[in-house]
Amino acid sequence: MDITGVIAIISVFGVIPLIIFLVHRHRERKALIEKGLDISLLVEEKKCSTLSSLKYGVLLIGLAIGILIGNILDAYTGLNEEVSYFSMIFLFGGLALLVFYGLAKRQGENLE
């Protein structure tokens, strides 16, 4: 599997929105400074929640299971390597997020 193409696509579609975001944020802050307003209006307080840690933990476990099942499908079936890996990663990643939603709803807290 040639990973160069995948990295090129990810970097192109990742860098362009990042540049647009940074330019927009710079212009917004510059306008606030020119008007004499406080920049603290733009700074959001980050809430360190146990739910966000749970979400990322469950998601990473789901992705790991997806990679493992994709490897098993690649080795023991006639599926193409890319199809087996990507389909299982997305399937188990999505299932992990659904499990997180169920756990969070049971706790009764706000979802992030």
UniProtKB/TrEMBL annotation:
Short name of one Pfam family: DUF6249
Source organism superkingdom: Bacteria
Transmembrane segments: 6-23, 56-73, 85-104
Signal peptide span: none
Annotated ranges, domain DUF6249: 6-104
Coiled coil: none
Keyword Aminoacyl-tRNA synthetase: no
UniProt keywords, alphabetically: Membrane, Transmembrane, Transmembrane helix
Name of the molecule in the record: DUF6249 domain-containing protein
